[in-house]
Write a structure and sequence with these properties.
Number of strands of chain A: 17
EC number (chains A, B): 6.1.1.21
Strand content of chain A: 15-25%
Family (chains A, B): Belongs to the class-II aminoacyl-tRNA synthetase family.
Largest sheet of chain A: 9 strands, mixed
Oligomer: homodimer
Pfam family, one (chains A, B): HGTP_anticodon
Distance between the termini of chain A: 50 Å
Catalytic activity (chains A, B): tRNA(His) + L-histidine + ATP = L-histidyl-tRNA(His) + AMP + diphosphate + H(+)
InterPro entries (chains A, B): aa-tRNA-synth_II, aa-tRNA-synth_II/BPL/LPL, Anticodon-bd, Anticodon-bd_dom_sf, His-tRNA-ligase, HisRS-like_core, HisRS/HisZ, HisRS_anticodon
Chain lengths: 465, 465
């Protein structure tokens, strides 16, 4: 029956997914699910509660949260009713949820969902317009840096379980802002200069300096002071000492407050035995507006470095965001895993097999002589018994399939059940082990006869053996 | 740090999720995941391969697939570039995927994802504008009704595992179209009358007759013939016999073809031992345009009937859809579970506890005399050991928490680890079992001393015991 108002795709217009999006299928998806399950296990180990929010939010909820990046937000068409936009991250929806539930003063929530950015896609580097984020956040008024330390611990645990070597770059917004102030950056320019400095992981100092001086009009000598301050990284211990040894910096209240935090954090990370996973990098700035304290970015290290995937997790403290909704202010700290980038790394390790192979345990086929009628009802009956037992079973959905077709379809399936008219009449079926190297031998082997009624048990034995 | 271009939500505008959407949190989500995991297990048991498609598609991909319902499609704003719309179901994206991959001649795919309809929401009945669908489809040219029968088997297996009593209403588009033709419905009116007839599960015959005659201008005697034909349901066996006993109906080619299918289906459902789960209901029509053969709808039966949730799963055969993309035509049959409605039923069974309780195994607290300093580093150290062992552990993220606060926070956690200055000095910690009725007794019990180094083992014993 043809749809009433059928309107086939114009010939010539090619069939595709929208720009910057892709389909996921088969083994790719199972690998991605493995990442999700690993993260979820750790999140719950740390008291995490799952949250799921709508894929679009009221436009005003997203307004004024992302600074320059707001232009990348996808809007829904005005079809009457409310103005909505696709979520840009999972942090703002979480803050909106917190602001809506004023009874919730503290919570640890995790959310794994897709987010949307009208960005220039770079599929090879795992950068898409629709991509997954995997967030864990601790909300609540606690003592300084204790939740922050636990978030870093969560990062280490997840990548440990995934078997990925990583390094966590950390910095502190208050220290950064203080450095800029001492260097002589006008306060209204701090965010601009900050985002320029943030490029130091990809661009050379000369390039960044040029951007600050020529594009952003920063005096050359100020830019150079900024350069000497931010182009330093090392262990928490060393950088904290270095900063403390510079009176003009310590004289700045913002730097002083940040340093106190970092001192606490170091002791907590030692107690958590992960202080060696952390690098204190004064050039780390992070783009988003809403960070207010500790910020961090995770990069692959060792043999986990595959091409230019960039940071594979990131986050920070955002104490001001929830309050922006005019309700209770709740201090928060959180992290977000770049699932697609992590996938890119893990996938590069796997040998690529067919992506459409399922994991059937048993293939049921029928062979026979000239009076052979395909035994469809018998094949269905056997399959139903196996399904009842929770065993993955398949058969060729044809009344009288060719033997060759059935053999072809059963490739890679460990166990075959072979039905024949005479065997069935004698209350028997053939069981055949399809595993092993020698295809020729497998082909010749006609399988062993087992009583029809003990089939399920026999199959179980073969699969477990 | 206040965001540079902060724009708080206007006072007065209330904070909410968009109309027809909701947040999911805590136990609700875990219950929903249980539904997903159950369905996935069955899908894979039947050879299913997972597919994930973008949340939006090129607008032309959705065009002309949904008939009247197309007006409910959400469009993305034209922000330059391609015109896109949010997916309306998972069937059309699957057909688009098949049409794109001309190498794939046959596949069994499942997809669990949200779909979007600008419909009148009815939250109480689990009807939202953003809701989950959970689809399993068998694509490929096989012998008639064999895949169709397996799809019905999948439905039965999933609801069996979920512990829900159901009944599957089935009908055949060709039989229905034939009945209309014999009754004298003009072919251009078939879809209109079809959707009127589809309301017979909710509305009385009088109401439906009125709609057909007065609104859709069908002659009264034609409407009455339609009525006598479609207001019949029963076992497959009975209805097939009934139709075969009416020469004027059997003379119609469309009815004849449909009846042949239904006869085959009955034999296959018998072999699958699920024929008793099926009711042949001639009034079932299904709204969507693209169905071409068998159609079905699952309704809760027995004690699974909770309020007016409507159908909890539905589907049918759509052999024409993939061909609409001007590529290879591939016959398909599939089903979609109404996850939110199934959730509503299962949730009504659960006693509602707090939705924000996590499942922490161990709570680590510190008590002490006047020189008590909170032992934060020791609490962190113990927690880290437990985390390393994969145990869910929490502690109060404060340097010097009040004992009362810790006791409060540990409510419902099975095991408590209690740290004290003196015990730690002696290389010991206290372990306390928090399970049991008598709160008073639990409060008095100070726990038993165990050596610090055997803590993890002792905790494991307590949790397993």
């Amino acid at each position: 029956m043809a749809p009433s108002n059928e309107k086939p795709v114009k010939p010539g217009s090619q069939l595709k997914t929208p720009k910057g999006t892709r389909d996921w299928v088969g083994r790719d998806l199972l690998l991605r699910d493995h990442i999700f399950e690993t993260a979820t296990e750790v999140f719950r180990r740390h008291g995490g509660i799952p949250l799921d929010t709508p894929v679009f939010e009221l436009r005003e909820v997203l307004a004024g949260k992302y600074g320059e990046e707001s232009r990348l937000i996808y809007n829904l068409e005005d079809q009457g009713g409310e103005l909505c936009s696709l979520r840009y991250d999972l942090t703002v929806p979480f803050a909106r949820w917190l602001a809506m539930h004023t009874d919730v003063k503290q919570v640890r929530r995790y959310q794994i969902a897709k987010v949307y950015r009208r960005d220039q896609p770079a599929i090879a580097r795992g950068r898409l317009r629709e991509f997954y984020q995997c967030d864990f956040d601790i909300a609540g008024a606690y003592d300084p840096m204790i939740p922050d330390a636990e978030i870093l611990r969560v990062i280490v645990e997840v990548f440990r379980l995934l078997g990925l070597e990583i390094s966590i770059k950390i910095n502190h917004r208050q220290i950064l802002d203080g450095l800029f102030a001492v260097a002589g950056v006008p306060s209204e320019q701090v965010r601009l200069i900050s985002s320029a400095v943030d490029k130091l992981d990809k661009a050379s100092w000369e390039t960044v300096r040029q951007e600050m001086v020529e594009e952003k009009g920063l005096p050359a000598e100020v830019a150079d002071r900024v350069g000497t301050y931010v182009r330093r990284s090392g262990s928490m211990h060393d950088i904290i000492q270095l900063l403390q040894s510079e009176p003009d910096l310590c004289a700045n209240d913002s730097v002083k407050a940040g340093l106190a935090d970092m001192g606490l954090l170091e002791s907590y990370l030692q107690a958590m035995r992960i202080v060696d996973n952390v690098v204190f990098d004064l050039s780390l700035a992070r783009g988003l507006d809403y960070y207010s304290g500790l910020i961090y970015e995770v990069i692959p290290s060792g043999d986990a470095q595959v091409g230019q995937v960039g940071s594979i997790a990131a986050g920070g403290r955002y104490d001001g965001l929830v309050g922006m909704y005019g309700k209770q202010p709740i201090p928060c700290v959180g992290l977000s895993f770049g699932v697609d980038r992590i996938f890119t790394i893990l996938n590069a390790r796997q040998e690529s097999a067919s992506h459409l192979t399922n994991e059937t345990d048993v293939y049921i086929m029928a062979f026979g002589g000239k009076e052979y009628d395909g035994l469809i009802l018998d094949r269905i009956g056997v399959a139903s018994e196996l399904w009842d037992a929770g065993i993955r079973a398949e058969f060729m959905p044809k009344v009288k399939p060719r033997p060759s077709g059935q053999s072809e379809a059963s490739k890679g399936v460990p166990v075959a059940v072979i039905l024949g008219q005479d065997e069935l009449a004698a209350g028997q079926v053939r069981l055949k082990d399809m595993r092993g190297e020698d295809e020729e031998a497998i082909r010749r082997d006609r399988g062993r006869l087992v009583p029809r009624e003990s089939l399920v048990g026999e199959v179980r034995k073969m699969l477990s053996g």
